[in-house]
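subagent[fold] <- orchestrator: predict structure for attached chain, return tokens only, no commentary.
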Amino acid sequence: MSLSFRLATILYLFAFSLLAQPLHQKDGVQLKEELKKLTVTGTALYLAAHPDDENTGLIAYMANELKVRTAYLSLTRGDGGQNLIGSEQGEELGVIRTQELLEARKTDGGEQYFTRAYDFGYSKSAEESMDIWGKDSVLADVVWIIRNLQPDVIITRFPGFEAYGHGHHTASALLAQEAFFAAADPEQFPEQLEHVNAWQAKRLLYNASRWWNPDLEAYYEKTGKKHIKVDIGVFNAPLGCSYTEIAANSRTKHKSQGFGTTPTRGAYTEYLELTEGEPMEEGIMDGVDLSWDRVEGGKKVSNLLKRALRKFDTDKPHESLPLLVQAHKELGKLSQSNPIVAYKITQLEDLIAGCGGFWMEAFANNYYISPGGELNINTGFLNRSGVSVILEKIALPEVGFSESIGLEVGNVMHNQEFVFNVPLDKMYSQPYWLEHDRTGGLFDVSSYDKLGLAEGEPAFSAVFTCSIEGEPFEFSVPVLYRWNDPVDGESFRPVEVTPQVAVNFTEPSYIFGSDGEEQIEVRVKALMPMQVGEVSVQVPDGWDISPKSIPVNIGKAGEEWKISFSITAPEDEAHGYLEAIFRTSQGEILDKSLVSISYPHINTQTIFPKAETPIVRVKVEKGNERIGYIMGAGDKVPEMLKNIGYEVELISDAQLKSGDLSKYDVVIAGVRAFNTKSELSYLNSVLVDYVRDGGTFIVQYNVSRGLVTEEIGPYPFEITRDRVTVEDSPVRFLQPEHPVLNTPNKITMQEFEGWVQERGLYFVGERDVRYESVLAFQDPGEDFLDGGLLLAEHGRGKFIYTGLSFFRQLPAGVPGAYKLFVNLISY
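subagent[fold] -> orchestrator:
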């Protein structure tokens, strides 16, 4: 096992929260709580399938009441779910949910990890899930993380004996059970043992959920199953809140899923069953030595930490520095291959920086830079403790730069400015799991130093080497860009390494409804000054483009050009991809686009996918309907309809309240509109009247939980959790001659080829007899479901509810989905 690799991995696993902010200064009470945690050596790992599956209350309890190191391992990043706050889907949604989990862990005190598994969408069986991911690959990831963290206890959110609503859920429990033993077996994944040791956790527990079984007390009384009860409603006086309150604040970070949560206050019982390992009588960590006695040579460290805790003054934390520095010196004498020791070193160094009131910063003059570009970084070091601190050196390891200082620093900021050229081989900074194309159900992550991490390393870091009480310390902070926002004040974002030029198509896909010529636009953005070259767009066979290339000469960084190409579609239906390329005057080819994901509750994220987009020739007949669109949670359907020639206007709240929708032939409600727009709770009658007076109203899928009104259509119907998840599953035509399947486009089985991720979700169950269904869909081994597309006449108009996932199919350029949606508009 490589000691340096092992230590670097553990140190980085702990430091994830520093990537987009300076060192955070904790107050005296918080520092004392952190010191208490240093005296405890236990570790717990919570394991489930998705962002939002974790029990934030139990995590908060273990991290802050038991004070053990607590981590959440989510098999996936939630890429296949729905998005309540925007239109991002797939990998982009996974980036958002990763950041939301990190914000949740900052709130409840846990750490965050992932496997390489891609959330491909809803799965109805664990077998399907593990087949798509590759069971051995994901099992290896779980084993790797267990061997790294060496948890005493592993807890699953789900049982392994049946799929409670989602195959990913059951798969997470089954993988945990197998990994519990495999992590301890040197014959399993022996290649990992060059870097980590085999590890046997003491027990594996199942955290039973009221979501599936509301009365757990009665359940355990009836079944007699062995379990323990834990009250997580305990009030933590130093923190000023209970763990259920912390849990609600943590869960509310999952904003893309609409999981804002009101706290439960007072006693709240969690139930845990033993799945494998040693039984327990009273508590999660029964039989686990939580003292420093478990670490060879740890007694002296323990005594120093306990003395520091007894003497700790929340008004004068700096007075604890001499004892804490002594403890750091003793820790350095212990085996660094022990993950407890390596982890406690990082905890202690963070505590020392906090008690000393140290402020360390490294701010760049811009938030992006390209390889070969020049970057200015201004560093600062401030010691507000009154204790003697010598700043020995400042280093920028990523560029191989360091400068000796040798200066005693007090309560005056010491600033040092550096100017350097970014190495030409510096990699672009984007989520590490997106650096390479995904292979099936797995992200391509080949290096162990990244495997399992929530996010990658910062593009640049400043390392401050100090001497405190004669003991050497290294503190690392990310290089950030800082600005003052007129509303939010001091603001930060990470410095990103970008391509010299980014090329973006202006549309997520291009749909040609005829074989004529159409214009497309490409945005060319210079991310370094003086970019000279040419842009070209590669088209699939059978398509023509003019001109073949367009010269570009952009003088300033940040400047953007919009350039147009004429594309002629083939006569027959066709599907392919456009690829945009910028060729520099030196012949270098740049083919990356730039996607920025920015929301107030997470750190801004930038990704650089390949500059390509679907292009489709579809023979679709359409009318000239004028469409009004009520945006819900966010989708790209309006742009897609404009692409094929419709006039689409977003309906404002004021328009909706006015009740005058007569200028529209068709009104469409975007995805989850009846979950997200509170106005629809009392304005749905306006839309029903619009139908009665001759309009067509199309409602796309809504989640059954959290509807603002049950009265969506002119007649009652019930939205269920039913869905058809297999995208190429069978389709049954219930009324082949129905106009919606024939006018203006003939819908055949061919129109259901090439669908992505799923057929549909949240189908209708019980409904009024006045609704008719024309299609039914079937997942393997299940009955056909006919609630994915319902039609009804009301007065002189038509009402349509569809759970079919048009919000995925249209941006993906699925021809048959366009034809069917046009038929709904024309119905």
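orchestrator: received. Logging for downstream: The longest strand covers residues 574-584. The radius of gyration is 29 Å.
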